[in-house]
Backbone:
């Protein structure tokens, strides 16, 4: 899948948000980080903007292809699941508005 | 120009983009307006400063982050264009096209191992960390103070997250069952994938219809049943019996009795060299562009097969664009071009989708195809995040992570939480609609029971 062992001319980026390559995932497995959570912690995949939305399935497939353990579950995405300005979250500490239409 | 508008818009507004004026159609996503001018490179990646462009047009990737009116990291695919908006490239030294910091990418062809780099000497390590923090990054802090805004509160019996087909069906049945029902949709319109699918689908009565027509009928049905539909409301977390959503300039606390998660799927990604280049995007993303009247390229290579690839190919050909493929997913070797895609290396095969007799490692088997856009169709990645946080179980299918739910009515391992449609692995439209309706019905019935017990 990732052309290992051949003349790699460009990176195979598997997690765009954190610039993690297929090589990084394979290296992690080679070093003994064989489960998805450990590979996430070692490489940082799935810890960026999208919290794994675009990459976690691909990283799991690359992990399995590299000889890692087939995952039993996903990584834990952290909310907020969509970027939110802190100012809007800070509003939660303020008095509430009623639920009427805006 | 690789990307362009199919028809000149009758009326435009002006965006100020990196000191230049760019025309846009009022209300269209800023990223679409920029891509319509032929610019696919909008951003740079955080570590290697690799060129990036929108890959999803759905608020799920890093490809369109820019600074708008002094606020960093705005997903421009979700930001409606307004006259006079100031849009800036961020995280570059120079310009988006020639970012001097991209040297990082050439300097570390094998990648950076931050665990061991410059760790021999403490002083050097400290100095290098400073440099790394300066080079890496995701924009700068806002130039002005952003005032905090109070949250809004909404209460309902049944909350449905996701306004695609199964979500609309679930909400309709919940409301018909007597439950006060709220539906949250992150996009400006409901309809989900039906809204952008450029082809026909078989509806619940077995008739072939245009996908957007089916989406429209489902919305009208939900509204007639009394569902309160909140578009541009992105659910960002589940906390007990409350979902936190984000609207334009505030958050909304939605308390619910029963929860139906119908969040669909993310397009996902593929592993080949240069798959992160601007101009490489998902097939659905390409369809989003078409829906906004923007051609994703004049010569588009499609990688990965399936309904979306075929529908996109037909839609592009109908607009007189050249289509190469669809190629089997495994055939893609390398997307080339700096800063945007200009060619794709594919493994040569007899039939476009047949890779049965490939001989690995032989250069002669690889063909370079000149193109100005690549549309990829990876296995869809179910959007399990919210269901998982609500307590549902999630399993690996071998391709992606899928919420474990009853095929019949979407019941998950978490009491009162249902997952329907693609997030639960149900991809067929009619099956997803049936599951959605059953979930909505069950949710309304159980809310009623709870109220009777409580009363």
Residues:
């Amino acid at each position: 899948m990732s052309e290992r062992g051949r003349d790699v001319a460009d990176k195979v980026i598997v997690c765009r948000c954190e610039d993690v390559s297929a090589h990084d995932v394979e290296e992690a497995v080679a070093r003994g980080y064989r489960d998805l959570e450990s590979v996430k912690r070692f490489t940082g995949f799935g810890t960026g903007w999208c919290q794994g939305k675009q990459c976690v399935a691909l990283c799991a497939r690359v992990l399995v292809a590299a000889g890692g353990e087939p995952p039993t579950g996903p990584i834990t995405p952290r909310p907020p699941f969509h970027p939110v300005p802190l100012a809007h979250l800070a509003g939660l500490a303020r008095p509430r508005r009623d639920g009427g239409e805006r | 120009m690789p990307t362009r508008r199919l028809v000149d818009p009758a009326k435009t507004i002006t965006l100020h983009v990196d000191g230049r004026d760019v025309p846009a159609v009022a209300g269209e996503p800023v990223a679409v307006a920029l891509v319509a001018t032929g610019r696919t490179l909008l951003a740079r990646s955080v570590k290697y400063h690799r060129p990036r462009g929108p890959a999803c047009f759905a608020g799920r990737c890093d490809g369109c982050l820019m600074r708008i009116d002094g606020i960093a990291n705005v997903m421009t695919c979700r930001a409606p264009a307004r006259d006079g908006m100031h849009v800036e490239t961020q995280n570059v030294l120079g310009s988006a096209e020639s970012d001097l910091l991209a040297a990082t990418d050439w300097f570390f062809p094998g990648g950076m191992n931050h665990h061991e780099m410059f760790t021999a000497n403490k002083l050097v390590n400290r100095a290098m960390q400073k440099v790394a923090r300066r080079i890496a990054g995701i924009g700068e802090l806002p130039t002005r103070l952003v005032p905090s805004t109070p949250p809004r509160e909404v209460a309902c019996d049944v909350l449905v997250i996701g306004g695609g087909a199964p979500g609309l069906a679930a909400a309709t049945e919940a409301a018909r069952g007597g439950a006060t029902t709220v539906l949250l949709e992150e996009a400006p319109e409901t309809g989900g994938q039906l809204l952008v699918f450029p082809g026909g689908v078989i509806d619940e009565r077995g008739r072939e219809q245009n996908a957007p027509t089916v989406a429209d009928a489902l919305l009208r049905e939900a509204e007639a049943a009394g569902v309160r539909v909140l578009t541009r409301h992105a659910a960002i977390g589940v906390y007990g019996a409350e979902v936190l959503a984000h609207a334009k300039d505030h958050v909304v606390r939605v308390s619910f009795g029963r929860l139906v998660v119908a969040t669909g799927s993310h397009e996902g990604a593929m592993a080949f060299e240069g798959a992160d280049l601007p101009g490489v995007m998902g097939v659905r993303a390409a369809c989003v562009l078409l829906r906004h009247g923007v051609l994703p390229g004049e010569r588009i290579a499609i990688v990965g097969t399936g309904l979306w690839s075929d529908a996109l190919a037909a839609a592009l050909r109908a607009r007189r664009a050249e289509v190469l493929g669809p190629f089997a997913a495994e055939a893609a070797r390398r997307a080339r071009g700096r800063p945007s895609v200009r060619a794709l290396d594919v493994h040569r095969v007899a039939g476009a989708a047949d890779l049965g007799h490939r001989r690995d490692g032989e250069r002669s088997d690889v063909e370079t195809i000149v193109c100005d856009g690549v549309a990829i169709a990876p296995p869809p990645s179910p959007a399990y995040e919210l269901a998982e946080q609500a307590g549902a179980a999630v399993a690996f299918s071998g391709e992606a992570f899928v919420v474990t739910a009853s095929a019949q009515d979407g019941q998950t391992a978490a009491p009162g939480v249902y997952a329907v449609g693609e997030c639960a692995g149900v991809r067929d439209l009619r099956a997803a609609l049936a599951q959605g309706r059953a979930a909505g019905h069950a949710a309304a019935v159980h809310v009623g029971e709870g109220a009777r017990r409580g009363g």
Observations:
- Chain B has ten helices and 31 strands.
